[in-house]
# Entry
Amino acid sequence: MLHLSHPPQNNKEGSTIDLNKYPSDNINFSIIAHVDHGKSTLADRLLELTGTIRKGHGQPQYLDKLQVERERGITVKAQTATMFHCHKFLGSDTDFLLNLIDTPGHVDFSYEVSRSLAACQGALLVVDAAQGVQAQTVANFYLAFESNLAIIPVINKIDQPTADPDRVKAQLKSMFDLDPSDALLTSAKTGQGLEQVLPSVIERIPPPPGKNTLPLRMLLLDSYYDEYKGVICHVAIVDGVLHKGDKICSAATGQSYEVSDVGIMHPELVATGILLTGQVGYIVSGMRSTKEARVGDTLHHTRTVIQPLPGFKPAKHMVFSGLYPADGSDFEALNHAIERLTCNDASVSVTKESSTALGLGFRCGFLGLLHMDVFHQRLEQEHGAHVISTVPTVPYIFEYSDGSKLQVQNPAALPSNPKNRLIACREPTVIATIIIPSEYVGSVITLCAERRGEQLEYSFIDSQRAFMKYRMPLREIVVDFYNELKSITSGYASFDYEDSEYQASDLVKLDILLNGQPVDAMATIVHKSKAPRVGRELVEKLKKFIDRQMFEIIIQAAIGSKVIARETLSAMRKNVLAKCYGGDVTRKRKLLEKQKEGKKRMKRVGSVDIPQEAFHELLKVS
Ligand SMILES: Nc1nc2c(ncn2[C@@H]2O[C@H](COP(=O)(O)OP(=O)(O)OP(=O)(O)O)[C@@H](O)[C@H]2O)c(=O)[nH]1
# Structure
């Protein structure tokens, strides 16, 4: 029995909820959409409508809990919330338990979306009434479609002056064969049309197929580390019933645990003592680290033999970057921070590495550049770590005459003078989907050609929007492609990609040298045709960001022994107080403190101090 601090509207004040009242009539659904089409706002309204959170709780996008999500206005982690709703069903009032999963919209986090969909039988496909179908609408529709989910189209933001729901209905019909009369028209902002959403969810989405009478099988959806409770796992009960105190076992590791707490996300954790078939909730079972909680694993009662669930495809790391402590003596602190953060974001791969320039650090694999950026920001914000990250790279394959193959996640690891002759270089490619207003077609084709793209498809969604598919080297899109695409289309382009095969490519390793010394952490692998431009841009950027020092600094870019770009930074003593005429002591003190802070964030490479921003700026050179 569950005692609610804020009982849902559908229940009388002070009443208790017995989960046994909702035998597999519960419904699990997800909200999927292109970025910013209003998923989190719609989730808020549904939580309010069911009394799960109070109206005017003062915190929009309630389920976006991370600081980085609030600052950037994006969803990074999928979040589940259980709601209770009374609905007239087959002639009588019936209480339903609804599990809503709010998912991220950005392409980097589509792995979160596909995991969330595994626990659902239906999805609300939210489309902005003015913007219409966008690239992630297409990607998310197919994720849901391939998972055999019931799809309810929701045309949102109909309050906008430029809203054109009929055009969006026509797009949904022509692109996905969705019946226009099935679409719900809503405004998550004004509340218009919201009353149809939950009845449609209940009537159109089937309940989960499992049985309470079968042996317990639960799918581990996600996990995170809580300072007080330890590892908390989010689970979906596929078959059977789980009680507090049960002994469970992991199908992946064979390790056994005792369930010390079990409950639902309402939307905060609320203990219920039980979870039944089809329900989504949390468990605490004494796991010591989230490494034990393998996402996609099947948990079952000890001493029962079960067929494990298919689980998930492992996360595919698209971008790798080195992370180093800004101050070398903070290595252990960074190690600890990364361990903690990966507990909450298991899609990052981490291996230790060392660099002559930066000392001991980590090579991390990310799902994309935004994911890398978000991880970096979370390390700083949530764990107070000061980090230097190296130029992101994609996993290249180099093949040698003796038949050996080398997968290179760190350009510094590529031998400049290999023992065996290099016979082939291969780079990963992606299939990119781009949707743009027709007037931008020309400039987007030019951009894609510059980025070595090969056009696979070009058609029109309707009279105003073009749809294009390109095969592109992953390297070309991870570095600032999306920003450039947005800027040449005045922000109207939408973009999504899925990974594809490796292709042969003419690649070279570009070294950066400071006073003749190669800086391993700045080495990068580029296409031969781009090496002269990238080399020039890198040395120019470095010249701008490295402060003059007491000796001359020669900055060079080189392929092997051939220097392809060079800049010289003449010697100077930098006096931060030079501009401080007048004798304002506090201002002087402030400047000196700022300088001290700046020094902490410097990296000494050989004899040259390099500020942290220089490393950041190098990330943007494509
Ligand atoms: N005018 C109008 N604005 C809306 C409506 N719904 C959401 N918005 C606004 O649209 C913006 C994006 O809303 P979110 O709910 O954060 O969108 P999202 O799809 O969850 O975004 P991601 O999580 O980043 O994918 C916010 O500024 C909302 O206030 C609506 O019905 N009408």
Q: What stands out?
A: The longest helix spans residues 585-600. The radius of gyration is 27 Å.
